[in-house]
DNA sequence: TCGTTTTCTCAGCAAATGTTCAGCCTGGGC
DNA sequence: GCCCAGGCTGAACATTTGCTGAGAAAACGA
């Protein structure tokens, strides 16, 4: 993902499952964030005190204390740190009880695209962060993250959620080659079991809906992957 | 969720339950207010002296002193700070009598929409705050918050309380995508246990009553949520 | 109190979306 | 030019999502 000279923001990732923690922190670092991790609530509060993160990604279910208490403590310690909750898809009770205090939340299993998008959205809202653009543009292609809308040469285009996420991933990585495996890892949920064939299907859908004019923007690199290239430097 | 350059007003939120305090302060901040919190009467008076809030949201039942005494003290200290009381639904007579001291009150469990609306109304009344519009308009849709009335192409429409709150939430967030969870969290009481199905029902009711003309204003974004979009940029 | 309004749930239907796959196409090495 | 692995795409199928009408239950008002 985007590589920046300086970190966009400092994040604290809190989850007791090492897999998830690693998955998230690696991916978020690649997206340009500075990342600190914690495995439980106690650790989270401790690190938050010392490092003053700009945002906390917090699993609702932790071994020592539930996420809401942690969020409360964090806010006691560190003013109005925004919190993005991670929660199981069917955690109905939790939602009712506490998710409203969250600035946003993502259900497990999530896709990395989704988490990054939510983090950016929250930072944009809570800090009015203008370094994080809500609107992307490549050639005649425009994408508004907040309005969840896409235009081709000014004409609105309807995309399904997956199509939208895929296009967004391409646009954030304009000019960078993305392998099918990489795309699968970022755009699809981390528990997706299928093979890279889906990616081909969705690239096909996208081209039909979004890449209709010459010069083409989405290019195939045989044996390597795909690139979204702006016009003129093909 | 409106993002503002400056805070609309400074609020002091007083409640001994941490959950409620967090819920309110997170949500009010998201609505553009600057928020200070206090857990009991003593703290409330102390903070009010120092920070001079524009309005105090005050739970009637506090561990150290009852809300009315607190309100009295606040007024001794800080002129005529308006107060919005929070009270249990089954308020007995003495309480109701006391509530006449309040500029307004909201019963628990409340919906965030309701609290924000009341706060705005009180600020409008007591400060003549013109930054806070009482009338919203989107396309041929008009909503008067104060008169609690809605017109479609100039024709008045009868809405139930929930329908009204939902429409208001849509209109305040024109152009912004709202997920069903988000809608549930803001428009329904915080103790609502049901699922997002109700939202679908109420959107259906609303469309039938207020979104009868082309072009449609309320759009469904499958898998994402709903948007109220003004005509012409679909 | 009784009738009316409102809220909420639910199930059946329709439509959109996600996934797989087989057959065809194509670029590039030989 | 021939071949073939890799890529493309239409079709089929499964799954998910959203819409709506009907009705039970609760709240409200006279």
Automatic annotation (TrEMBL), chains A, B:
InterPro entries: CheY-like_superfamily, OmpR/PhoB-type_DNA-bd, Sig_transdc_resp-reg_receiver, WalR-like, WH-like_DNA-bd_sf
DNA-binding region: 133-230
Response regulatory domain span: 10-123
A GO molecular-function annotation: DNA binding
Identification of the protein by name: DNA-binding response regulator
Keyword terms, alphabetized: DNA-binding, Phosphoprotein
SUPFAM superfamilies: CheY-like
Residues in the signal sequence: none
UniProt organism field: Streptosporangium pseudovulgare
Segments forming domain OmpR/PhoB-type: 133-230
């Amino acid at each position: 993902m985007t590589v920046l000279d300086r970190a966009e923001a400092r994040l604290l990732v809190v989850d007791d499952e090492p897999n998830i923690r690693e998955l998230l922190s690696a991916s978020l670092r690649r997206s340009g964030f500075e990342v600190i991790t914690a495995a439980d609530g106690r650790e989270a509060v401790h690190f938050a005190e010392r490092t003053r993160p700009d945002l906390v990604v917090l699993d609702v279910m932790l071994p020592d204390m539930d996420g809401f208490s942690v969020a409360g403590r964090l806010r006691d310690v560190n003013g109005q740190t925004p919190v993005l909750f991670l929660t199981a898809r069917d955690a109905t009770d939790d939602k009712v009880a506490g998710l409203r205090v969250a600035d946003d939340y993502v259900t497990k299993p999530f896709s990395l695209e989704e988490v990054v998008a939510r983090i950016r959205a929250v930072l944009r809202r809570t800090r009015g962060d203008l370094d994080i653009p809500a609107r992307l543009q490549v050639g005649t292609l425009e994408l508004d993250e907040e309005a969840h809308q896409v235009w081709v040469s000014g004409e609105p285009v309807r995309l399904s959620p997956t199509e939208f996420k895929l296009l967004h991933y391409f646009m954030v990585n304009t000019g960078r080659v993305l392998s099918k495996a990489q795309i699968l890892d970022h755009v699809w949920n981390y528990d997706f079991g299928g093979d890279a064939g889906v990616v081909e299907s969705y690239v096909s859908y996208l081209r039909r809906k979004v890449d209709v004019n010459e010069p083409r923007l989405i290019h195939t690199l045989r044996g390597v992957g795909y690139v979204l290239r702006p016009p003129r430097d093909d």
